[in-house]
Amino acid sequence: MEQNMLSLDGICCRFGDTRAVDRVSLDIPAGQFVGIIGPSGAGKSTLLRLINRLVERSEGGIHFGSREITGLRGRALRQWRRDCAMIFQQFNLVDRLDVLTNVLVGRIADHGLISSLTMRFSEAERELAFHALDRLGMAHKALERAGNLSGGQQQRVAIARALVQRPHVMLADEPIASLDPGNATRVMDALRRINREDGLTVLVNLHTLDTARAYCDRIVAMRAGRVMFDGTARQLTPDVVRDLYGTDGLGQIDESVTSTSLRRLELA
Q: Which fold has domain 6-267?
């Protein structure tokens, strides 16, 4: 198996009678930027949480290179969550702490219990965190309370926190859904820059087709827990989009696919 390839083999996740993810198989080479699209309830967020082991699979397996992920426990699971950083729509920062300390929280997986509880970090870790903030254009906010930042700034701090984990894979669950267009562009630009400069594998759930087409090497579209399309932006034609989101026209398509998006597809 290729080193650092992320492989999902028939992965399923059931909640009662509902199959949130239904027999998904994907091979994602190292360094690829993958956008996951689909209507609400398609299984996009659950898929990322399965990879990060925030929810447990019902069937199937996940491998990263030669490492089997679905059976990890204890320290090995904590190490995987360090290697597979997760960015959420809600930012998950501690408002009362300064920005630099929020970023340093990304180093906790490498600490013992006592140093984690007391938030003791080395000078080298502080330099790492400051450098991550600088890459995200947020170094000047390092000593400001996280709660004072705008949504877009908080999301960039969350990305810096993920960066200091020194991950191999970065998962982003609708990271721009609550941001205005300007901040959404800054966040997506940052993710693409990290992908290209660091060679990180990036999987990002997106609610707009235009964003997926602009940034992603590969687009995976889900519906009802299943992968219905897997290809490049150019292959995602208007006919494919209509098939993915229903045969009754735009009335069946949620906010992730607008008539403007389809017109741009037709002109591409």
A: Rossmann fold (3.40.50)
